[in-house]
């Protein structure tokens, strides 16, 4: 038993809440025409997911809502709920009882619930198909459809069989996969065409931008080299430049210190100098005194020698001195003669003249003196006086010499001190000079470094770089040869870069974006291709499953069908066969028809089901020649064949026994009886035999208020 009960409220002719309990076995629903029996079947069909209003005998879904009667006003909504016993877990839900409920409102909105939780219709249908329930097949056979199996198309027949076999679940899955495959294929085609569209443009962009590809690399390399080159030079030059300053200021200190010292030295030199004039004037005085004294001595000596001659001349006159005088005179004249002869020999007439004048004047004075007639004694006295004078003068001269020596000594020591002080001043001056010179040299050096720095700054500017960038890069000092090597590399790189031309940023950006888009599309294409492959394999798997299970079941059903057919028709033959399927398919592609080989399994599951019959005692065959009753019999035989191979949990049949004659109606109720051990039956019938075989009988009547009523009539025995 699966169906437990049905609850209706405002559904079609059931204005009020009605509950129908379904026990195990057969439930027969009976009642007069138009009382609302089929409305119950409609409710079940609706609850099993029917979407087609026509199948529910209405124009729109709102026709399902009680429309009012002479005694009752119309309802605002219709609801129906079917309760299932789920202890055997026919539904893959953990509940022991499953309630499926649908509601429809006048505004057309409808709601679906599984155990009071709202769900989508899709979820409901999926759940039902997983439990081999649905409205496509023979689970619910509506009134007037007793020959459903015959009048159905081969494909509809297949659908009916698949629903009972529980293959509908796989069909839904396959359908879903196919829908996805279709979308995926569309996306794949779109993506492919986008790729095809982008690719030539991308190739062009790649060609245009490839020449700049290395540019970035080269630029990076250039920056690196410039960093080394300018960095090393900048740090070396700034260090050198800054190193000069302390030296200059040290010299500043030295200079001012030396200047202070010079001032001191000059002051002391001046002091020394001031002490000099006194000594010098004293010496000059002494020296002039010395000259005077000298000339005085010479005068006195001359006078004395004259006096001596005079005395000699006087004494010659005295006899005792005559010989001596004569000798002296001889000598004297001899001397005069010798001198005169020498001077004459020399022919120095001027000197001779002077000599003679002197002799003459001497002679004059002698004769004058002799004429004065001084006596010798007087002369001697005179001589003595003069000698005293001479002695005095000589003594004085000695004193002066001593004084001069002393002063000279003093002056000499002054000179030594002066020279020393002077040389100190001079050496200080030259020291200052050398400091200044050194400082000037350093200033010049600083100027040179500054010039070099400015030159480097110009180079940095020309390279389009910022000077500040290199101040923070502490680089090791590079050797001249290293710098030269780097410099030539820089020149080479700059040459290469300028040969490349300026980068067209917009073009590079476009190329980059296009490349990204291209890669994205490629990835997407790969994903889609994988999805297509996955879906195709899912579809193939599902198709195989459907194919195998269906084929296996169909041959069994066909045998059962033959059995039930010959039982009902008292002989004859019947079978179900699959339609022949075309393996080859013609598809149009690019205006040309090409033959496409479709895999058999994929194609085979689309094959419908044909019925082949041979009636007993009749020569004719085919479905068209069958009577109405015969059509119902064939359909019922097929139904029983189906449920004997794969019994469904329940069957809902609305007057399918109506066209049967009494004998066949009896046979039908026997078979229902037989199958009711496994299958729960809900049957609407006017057939007495069917009513009698039922376990429960519900009588449906139309009340005086115009609404349907249900009366339960439990059968006994
Ligand atoms: P028969 O034995 O002749 O097949 P039945 O018992 O199966 O009859 P139904 O077809 O179930 O009868 O009921 C039809 C009745 O239900 C009609 O009288 C119809 O007017 C009524 N009906 C259908 N839809 C509505 C509705 N929305 N509101 C009120 N009554 C409705």
UniProtKB/TrEMBL annotation:
Q: Which InterPro entries match?
A: P-loop_NTPase, RecF/RecN/SMC_N
Sorted alphabetically, the keyword list is: Coiled coil
Question: In which domain of life is the source organism classified?
Answer: Bacteria
The UniProt record lists the RecF/RecN/SMC N-terminal domain at 3-708
Coiled-coil segments? 167-194, 248-275, 373-410, 511-545
Against PANTHER family, the record matches this protein to: STRUCTURAL MAINTENANCE OF CHROMOSOMES PROTEIN 3 (PTHR43977)
Protein name per Swiss-Prot or TrEMBL: RecF/RecN/SMC N-terminal domain-containing protein
Q: Which organism is it from?
A: Candidatus Liptonbacteria bacterium CG11_big_fil_rev_8_21_14_0_20_35_14
Higher taxonomy: Bacteria, Candidatus Liptoniibacteriota
């Amino acid at each position: 038993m699966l169906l437990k009960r049905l609850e209706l409220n405002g559904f079609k002719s059931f204005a009020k809440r009605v509950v129908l309990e379904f026990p195990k076995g057969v439930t027969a629903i009976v009642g007069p025409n138009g009382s609302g029996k089929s409305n119950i079947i409609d409710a079940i069909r609706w609850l099993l997911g029917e979407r087609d209003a026509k199948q529910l005998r209405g124009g729109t879904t709102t026709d399902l809502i009680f429309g009012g009667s002479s005694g009752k006003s119309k309802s605002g909504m219709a609801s129906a709920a079917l309760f299932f016993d789920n202890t055997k877990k026919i539904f893959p839900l953990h509940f022991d009882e499953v309630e499926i409920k649908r509601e429809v409102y006048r505004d057309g909105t409808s709601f679906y619930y599984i155990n009071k939780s709202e769900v989508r219709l899709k979820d409901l249908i999926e759940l039902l198909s997983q439990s081999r329930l649905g409205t496509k097949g023979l689970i619910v056979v509506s009134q007037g459809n007793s020959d459903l199996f015959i009048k159905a198309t081969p494909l509809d027949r297949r659908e009916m069989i698949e629903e009972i076999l529980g293959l509908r679940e796989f069909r839904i899955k396959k359908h879903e996969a196919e829908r996805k495959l279709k979308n995926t294929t569309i996306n794949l085609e779109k993506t492919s065409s986008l790729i095809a569209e982008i690719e030539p443009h991308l190739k062009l962009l790649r060609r245009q931008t490839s020449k700049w590809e290395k540019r970035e690399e080269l630029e990076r390399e250039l920056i690196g080299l410039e960093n080394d080159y300018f960095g090393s030079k900048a740090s070396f030059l700034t260090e050198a430049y800054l190193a000069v300053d302390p030296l200059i200021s040290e010299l500043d200190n030295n200079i001012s210190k030396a200047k202070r010292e010079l001032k001191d030295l000059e002051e002391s030199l001046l002091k020394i100098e001031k002490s000099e004039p006194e000594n010098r004037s004293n010496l000059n005085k002494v020296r002039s005194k010395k000259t005077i004294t000298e000339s005085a001595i010479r005068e006195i000596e001359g006078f004395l020698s004259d006096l001596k001659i005079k005395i000699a001349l006087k004494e010659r006159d005295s006899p005792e001195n005559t010989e001596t005088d004569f000798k002296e005179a001889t000598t004297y004249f001899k001397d005069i003669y010798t001198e005169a002869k020498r001077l004459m020999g020399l022919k120095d007439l001027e000197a001779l003249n002077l000599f003679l004048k002197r002799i003459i004047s001497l002679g004059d004075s002698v004769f004058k003196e002799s004429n004065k007639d001084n006596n010798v004694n007087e002369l001697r006295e005179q001589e003595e006086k003069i000698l005293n004078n001479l002695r005095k003068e000589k003594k004085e001269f000695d004193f002066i010499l001593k004084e001069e020596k002393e002063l000279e000594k003093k002056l000499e020591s002054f000179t030594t001190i002066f020279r020393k002080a002077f040389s100190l001043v001079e050496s200080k001056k030259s020291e200052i000079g050398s400091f200044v010179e050194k400082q000037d040299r350093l200033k010049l050096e600083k100027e040179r470094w500054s010039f070099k720095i400015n030159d480097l700054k110009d180079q940095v500017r020309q390279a389009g770089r910022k000077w500040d960038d290199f101040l923070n890069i502490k680089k090791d000092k590079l050797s001249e040869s290293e710098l030269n090597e780097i410099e030539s590399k820089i020149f080479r790189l700059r040459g290469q870069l300028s040969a490349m031309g300026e980068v067209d940023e917009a073009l590079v950006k476009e190329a980059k974006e296009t490349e990204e888009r291209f890669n994205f599309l490629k990835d997407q294409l790969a994903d889609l291709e994988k999805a297509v492959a996955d879906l195709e394999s899912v579809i193939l798997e599902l198709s195989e499953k459907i194919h195998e299970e269906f084929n296996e079941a169909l041959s069994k059903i066909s045998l059962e069908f033959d059995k039930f057919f010959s039982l009902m028709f008292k002989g004859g033959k019947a079978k179900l066969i699959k339609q022949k399927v075309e393996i080859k398919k013609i598809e149009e592609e690019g205006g040309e028809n090409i033959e496409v080989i479709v895999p058999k399994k994929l194609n085979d599951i689309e094959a419908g089901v044909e019925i082949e019959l041979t009636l007993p005692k009749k020569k004719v065959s085919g479905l068209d020649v069958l009577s109405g009753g015969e059509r119902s019999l064939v359909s019922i035989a097929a139904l029983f064949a189906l449920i004997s191979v794969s019994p469904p949990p329940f069957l809902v049949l609305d007057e399918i026994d109506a066209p049967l004659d009494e004998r066949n109606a009896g046979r039908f109720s026997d078979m229902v009886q037989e199958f009711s051990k496994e299958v729960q039956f809900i049957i609407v019938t006017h057939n007495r035999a069917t009513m009698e075989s039922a376990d429960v009988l519900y009588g449906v009547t139309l009340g005086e208020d115009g609404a349907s009523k249900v009366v339960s009539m439990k059968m006994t025995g």
